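Example record

One chain of 252 residues, shown exactly as stored in the release files.
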Amino acid sequence: MEERFADIGATAGVMRTFFVHPRRHGPFPALILYMDFWGVREELYDIARWTAAVGYCCAVPDLYYRQGAVHNDIRDRDGRMVSLNRLDEAARARVLAPLQKLSDAEAMDDTRAVLGFLAGDKAVRAGAKGCFGYCLGGRLAMRTAGSFPGEIRAGASMHGSRLVTDGDRSPHLLAGKIQGEFYCGFAEHDPYTPADTPARIAAAMTSSAAAYSYEIHAGTEHGYALPNRDIHDKAATLRDWETILAMFRRQL
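Predicted structure tokens for this chain:
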């Protein structure tokens, strides 16, 4: 594989973005991987490398670039990243602080810049693209699919946060604009996702031309799909990827 960091000119400055793709037989369909609230790190770059290994270009933008270098990394005695709800109040406030300064609207402006970068890279095949993400990134993947339907044909959210709100800018209200396919993986136990979220998204997606599927993984917690997390669930994660990779093959 070939990988590098690209400095993408975005509306608020230079956004450092990890970019990886196979070495030969390109160009390849492009994916955007959206970070969770912890921010970019090697764990996410490894996931991008896995997608490259099966034939995709994958970009991982640092959406915290407006705040400088943000590195949140709190580990347990086994070297696994500690989940938010297992942190004390002070640590929780500290790691959440960068998230409070990032708006979904800013992330969509940044997405436009990433799409422009992908359009100009010779490793990227023109046409349909995909996106996926975790927690915050799951929400942004849904927003991207609804905001850029002419380019995004496959999207996935794993334990996405605040996918449904009571406001008029709720991500699920973009359902009618989504094209291609969209998938959501939900944790059974998720304090950041109300229990009625899967049903409300499914209802909203009936107005969409896109195929929609979701799965609620029994016994899992928020963060289950991230491989270095203390509550990682391998079986649930592999089930997500079985569905997502099949979707990418169909749509991209």
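Notes: The chain has six helices and eight strands.
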